[in-house]
Amino acid sequence: MKKIVSLILSLSLILALAACGGTSGTSESPTQNSDTPAQTTPAQAEEVEVVVFAAASMEATLTQIADLYKEVAPNVKLTFTFDSSGTLKTQIEEGAVCDLFISAAQKQMNQLDSADTTGTNEGLDFVQSDSRINFVENKVVLAVPDDNPKDIQSFSDLATDKLSLLCLGNDDVPVGAYSLQILDTLGIDITALEADGKVTYASNVSEVANQVKEGAVDCGIIYATDAFTYELTVVDQATAEMCDQVIYPAAVMKCGGSEASQAAAQAFLDYLHTDADAIAVLEGVGFTVIQ
Q1: Is 205 annotated as a binding residue?
Q2: Which family is it part of (predicted)?
Q3: Which of 70, 113, 121, 181 is the most buried (most CB within 10 A)?
């Protein structure tokens, strides 16, 4: 009888220990205990939208670079608006959200920058001045349609009977302002050309390039990069004596969507002028990246 009781007690002790071991193993498994938090992986970075306003002449290159940037910052959504720098400046002034502004001339950036020392500022304070850089340089060229039916070979030909119709950017568009400087330097009277019906105007440089490409005009004054993008024939290039140096400033704006989007805009700007792949795209179409 004592042996039976001892055996029963031993079996009870073994079963109790096994039960404790099973409970211990279960408590370590998050799938078995709803009170235990499930293990988590590091959270992916939240998506941030960066609104970029850029000169129309940068559309092809920035669109291409945006695809490259997806590999660098997959959480950043780049939203572009391309137009004349004057139009973009006005939109910013009127309250548009903009994290990064790239202008085709200093004038429009200066107008928005309270730190401007040239006297151009209009009492506006939209630019994070410490972020502002001279980004790229472009060239102003005279482009003609395929086969150049009017045989225009230089800016000087714009004062001859060879010209029937010239396309320029409006005077509030940087390429239009550069064009007027060139004509003035060469002594070509724009008022006389207008009176003779030899000038038509476009709201941005892409429109000028399109009119040349379609053969709607005899020639147009555009940027070298647009001539490359639209595969146009260039017959002349402005020298330093003809017009101002074509510098594109870029800066993060105070009218951005949020602190996160402004920080992401700064990161994208840094990438644009330091990354080898981005620089290769820009210089491949004729821009010179300013270091």
Answers
A1: yes
A2: Belongs to the bacterial solute-binding protein ModA family.
A3: 113
Structure letter (DSSP) for residue 215: T
The DSSP H or E segment spanning 157 is none
Task: Express each pLDDT in 148-203 by its tens digit.
Answer: 999 999 999 999 999 999 999 998 899 999 999 999 999 999 999 999 999 999 99
* 8 A C-beta contact, residue 229 and residue 154: no
Q: Which CATH superfamily includes the segment(s) 140-237? A: Periplasmic binding protein-like II (3.40.190.10)
Residue 133 CB partners (closer than 8 Å, separation 6+):
249, 250, 251, 269, 273, 290
C-alpha closest to that of 24 among 39, 16, 11, 38: 16
Q: 250-288 pLDDT, tens per residue? A: 999 999 999 999 999 999 999 999 999 999 999 999 999
Alpha-carbon distance values, 137 to 83, 248, 250 (Å): 18, 6, 12
Task: Read off the pLDDT of each residue in 8-31 and give the average, rounded to a whole number.
Answer: 41
DSSP 53: E
Q: In the CATH scheme, what is the homologous superfamily, with its name and number, of domain 48-138+245-289?
A: Periplasmic binding protein-like II (3.40.190.10)
**Of 260, 33, 243, which is closest to residue 137 (Cα–Cα)?**
243
